Fold these 2 entries.
Entry 1:
Amino acid sequence: MKKVLKWLAIGLGALIALVVIAGIILNKKKPTGKTGPEAEALAQKVFTAINHEAWDSTRVLTWSFMGMHHYVWDKQRNYAQIKWGDNEVLMKLDQVTGDAFVNGKPVTGKQKEKLIKKAWSFWCNDSFWFCAPSKVFDKGTERSIVDLENGSKGLMITYASGGVTPGDSYLYELDENGLPVSWQMWVKIIPIGGISNTWEGWTTTKTGAKISTKHGGIVSMTMKNVQGVMTFEEAGLSSDPFIDLKP
């Protein structure tokens, strides 16, 4: 038994050492970007590529994140319906308040608070992967230019505030038109800096906005049922899901 425990300890130690070594090899130092007019112009090129004017005018957006979290976003009022499993939250995103339901029945008290908090965490992550390029000029962001290894110019976006983990940085690689191809991340939730994910599977909504539906990388992510329309009826909804949400 002692020999078994000894070999288990040796094996665990070797595994930990491999993880540490892999982390050192994969970890990249965040590059220093240059702020100024060139960075602002490159960010504007991203806006043009995704047709941000159409994005701004779109009222209703729907999507499913990884087939697990399902969203209806009334962008005009900034309300969201967030569904997962038997749970549903109708949220006023500006206030992080709203109503919660389990199996279609309203819940109150601590259970309601818990579901709203969980839905907010889902929203901050999933909506960012859904529309991050539309947020490069958000309040609290800094834009800078970085020289990439392939000789092109990358756009670094650093978020000083917002969401669940402010202070994170994302370095976009863009195509010749300014459409994101991939990004590298320096974020609090991932201990290894410079992890990369692709931005691909671009689709154009009925309103003309471009949205990426697939992110390849160490973990692949997909967006299904992506729609951008002007009315709930166009989104396949029979009525306003927020009609009973108290002001």
Note: The first helix runs from residue 2 to 26.
Entry 2:
Amino acid sequence: IYLVHPDGTGIRRLTDGGKENNRLGGWSPDGRFFTLGSNRRAPEGIDAYVCDPDAGTLRLVSENRGIGGFTDISRDGGHAILSRTVSRGNNDLFRVDLQTGSETLLTPHEGPANLSGAFGADVRTIYLASDLAGDLRVFVRLDLDARPIPLDALDQRIRADVAAIQRELAEGGLRCVTIAI
């Protein structure tokens, strides 16, 4: 992974290169760091890292036995959502404290599940696309203050680009969701 100025100058490599596989993740809302996945620790797993581009340092946050990576960063930059593949067609989502690396399982389930998620306006609300309730993916809101954490379906019949809706909600760009069925 390289960092370069918009005009093409100042290129510098941030990963070792040639010995590992790296996947670029997202930037923090304030632009101070970004996430990436890499198998630099062990060839059998893609771990989740945070990179400080100014210092040129990588910090391992979450180890994975298989494939995993951060899918979103909270607005305050303190937490991330980690998707960890259990097996083909089955993954779990975790909320990870980026300073301590502590993980909270968000999606306990049995059997296969295809899950993706994004933070709401705060770190206590997470929006998911989930097929836990059946064959179709539904848009779900997680309220992390509730116990047990309920999976509240926002629309059981959704046939839309849920990833785009999640991004819009996380960025605060949507006040409501209208879906044509």
Note: The longest helix spans residues 162-170.
